[in-house]
Amino acid sequence: MKEDPENKKEMDQLTGDEIMHGHEYDGIKELNNKLPRWWLGLFYITIIIGVIYILRYHVLRTAPLQEEEYMTEMAAYEQPADYEDFSSSVSNGSSGAETSVVAIQLTDATSLEAGKVVWDKNCSVCHLAQGQGLVGPNMTDAYWIHGGSFEDIIKIINTGVIEKGMIAWKDVLSATDIQQVASFIMSLQGTNPPNPKAPEGTLYNPGS
Question: What is the extent of the structural domain holding 128?
Answer without folding.
Answer: 79-203
